[in-house]
Each structure stands twice: as C-alpha cells, then as structure tokens.
Amino acid sequence: MHVPFCSIIPPYMLRRLAQQDAPEFSSAASAARKALGHVESFQAARSQVVPPLPPGLRPEKPGPVNRAIYDAGGDETLPGRPVREEGGPATGDAAADEAYDGLGNTHRLYADAFGRDSVDGRGLKLDATVHFGKLYDNAFWNGSQMVFGDGDGDVFERFTKSVSVIGHELAHGVTQYTAGLVYRNQAGALNESMSDVFGALVEQYVKNQTTAQASWLIGEGLFTPKVQGRALRSMKAPGTAYDDDVLGKDPQPDSMDSYVRTSADNGGVHINSGIPNRAFYLVAEALGGCAWEAPGRIWYETLTNGSLPPAATFTVFARATVRAAADLFGPESPEHDAVGAAWETVKVKV
Predict the structure, then answer these.
(1) What values do phi and psi take at 148, rounded to 5?
(2) Cα dihedral sign, 136-141-142-144
(3) Residues 123, 118: Cα–Cα separation, whole Å
(4) What are the C-alpha distances in Å from 17 to residues 29, 140, 165, 167?
(5) Residue 215: helix, strand or coil by DSSP?
(6) CA distance 325 to 338
(7) pLDDT at 53 over 70
(8) Are the CB atoms for 203 and 213 separated by under 8 Å?
(9) Beta strands in 78-199 (DSSP E)
(10) Other C-beta atoms within 10 Å of 293: how many?
(11) CA 197 to chain centre
(12) Average of per-residue pLDDT across 84-92
C-alpha cells in the first residue's frame, strides 16, 4: 500500500486558524499556515509501499519494547539528535520524556491486550522526534516514525501532552501494516477512526479506566486556556469537542444523517470519522467494563484478519465487525448484538 502522511490536526481546523487576523492570534495564524502547507504538500505526495506481514510470519509472542527519542531542535530535518534510547534515564525535557512514555504505553496495550509485537507485528523499533519545527502545530506519522511539534503556545500546547495523540498516530502504522486502508473518502475516515479508537484505548489502558470512567476525548490537553474546547474530537458525542470563536464549532457528524460530502481533507477523512467513532463508543457503552477487552478485540480482529479491502466503505467495515464479533463471541452473544445495534444507531447499513 502507499503510505500517506497522517497528522492529528485536521486541515479544516488549521485553515480556520490560518485566517485569523486578530493581533493576539498572529503567531498562531502564522504557525497554522505553515502546518497547513506541510499537510497539503505531504498529502499530495506518496511515500514507500509497505506490504502487510503475512499472519503466519508474526512472532508467537510480543517482544520487549525498543524506543528511541530524537530532538529536532526547531529544525525540520529527521530524525534529529538522539536524546534517549531504550532503558535510558529521563532527560528532564517534558516533550522527550512524554514521547518516550507514550511509545511505551502504546506498545504495552498492543502486547498485553492483542498479543501484537509493536506497530508492524514483528518488533518494529519505535522512533519519535520532538521539537520539530518552530511553533509547529501538529503531530504526525510519516510511515516510519512519530514526529511532534511544540505548538504555537496561543492555541495549541506541545503535542506530546496527550497520550491519545501518541496512540492515535502510532495506530496509523498498525493500519499501514495490516488492512492498508487508503487515506481517502470513507476508507480514509475509517483509517482515522481506527487511530482514534486505539488512541483512546491506550489512554484508557494507561489510566485503567472503564468505559464509564473514560472521557472518550482525542487530544485532551492540547488546547491552551484561551480556547473554548476540551479536545480535538469526542468519540462519545461527535460534534461537541469544541465551540470557539477562533476555531469555530466541531463539525463532526454523529450519524450518516449528517455525513459530510466534501473534496477537502481527502474527502473528509477527519470529519466523517466521527460516525464510526461513535459506533465503537456505543459498543463499549453497551458492554460495559474495559473497552480494550471485547470491543477492542472485535475492532482489532477486523483490522488485522485480512478481510478488509483497502477501499472499504463504512458498510463493508460494519459488516466485518459483525462477523468478527460472531467469530470471537458467537452469533447469539451480547457482543454480536451490541455491534449490530451500534451501527444501526449511527445509520450505517449492515
């Protein structure tokens, strides 16, 4: 599959911020314009082709995590200067140490909950670069490593502050090595949604939260106090994460009744991901307990079992989750019923 540049901040949010002319947001607007140009240049390109690993070649059990953190020092050359290797002491740099911990926590979720050995299933070393660019308003997975900006300080804080962001971006790597969902239209929205799902699960696993205790917010803590909003997205209630004079109102739909048809953002990959996001939350809510257990297993099995075509639509994906629930828990199980009911609620035909 062709590996796209996958970033956490939607282009529509950067575009809105880039248009601000108020003096107090001048640096944020400039940072947003730069980040938007970066996103658009990368999305216009395509990088290396990465074949999925055949199931039979995966290790029988996950190995230990292997991490490395680099410091770009405000430049945009990757990976940058090495500052912390696996097992090394904390650096005292909040971004470097948050990235190190976030990579480890993500590896631990996949190993413990799903028996997966790192992002690629065979022990891929997890590299991350912090302090990328100057006032850089984004974090991204470039097909081989994580990259974090420091934010502009007016609207966005440093991007390592949110565990769900780290888990989200690394999940793009898991999708890259498994289903290879293309980054366009509904398949792209599913690609984004899978990253939100596993990003949320990493955060919940770290905090040992049940479905009822979790916030179900993606990117909580990224906004400065100047912003009227809690996070980038809400899986529980898409469209409610923020409502701000500068950023506007969260545009995510929560069902197919308000599906957004657009050519922007590769066909609305960040906007329409709210629909499958809510479906996952509804399954977790119905089943209770910890979402990385039954709901997470169903979504992980769907992503990795080889049944999804790269251009899967919401309906194709929904049907695959119903089959996975039946295979894992039985066709008469509460898990199977919960999955079918969730897709019905968000108006996706199964």
Answers:
(1) -125, 130
(2) positive
(3) 5
(4) 5, 19, 20, 25
(5) coil
(6) 9
(7) no
(8) no
(9) 81-85, 126-130, 139-141, 146-148
(10) 16
(11) 7
(12) 98
Task: Return the active site residues.
Answer: 169, 270
Q: What is the pTM of this model?
A: 0.94
Residues 6 or more apart in contact with residue 1 via CB below 8 angstroms:
49, 50, 51, 52, 176, 180, 182, 310
* Mean pLDDT, rounded, of the chain: 93
- Going through 142-198 in order, the beta strands assigned E by DSSP cover 146-148
* Cβ 339 vs Cβ 298: under 8 Å: yes
In the numeric block, which tokens belong to residue 123? 């022990």
Instruction: Give the pLDDT mean for 148-165.
Output: 96
**How are beta strands 233-234 and 243-244 bridged, if at all?**
unpaired
List residues bridging with 139 in a β-sheet. 148
Residues 6+ apart with CB under 8 A from 216: 200, 234, 235, 236, 281
* Contact status, residue 296 vs residue 201, Cβ threshold 8 Å: yes
pLDDT in tens, 185-210: 999 999 999 999 999 999 999 999 99
Name beta bridge partners: 248.
244
127 phi and psi angles, rounded to 5 deg: -105, 145
The better pLDDT of the pair 52, 111 is held by 111
- Report the pLDDT averaged over residues 232-252: 96
% the chain with pLDDT above 70:
93
Amino acid 197 reads: V
**Amino acid (1-letter code) at residue 155:** V
**142 phi and psi angles, rounded to 5 deg:** -105, 15
Segment (H or E) for 7: strand 6-7
**Residue 340 vs residues 137, 312, 325, 331: alpha-carbon distances, Å:** 38, 18, 9, 11
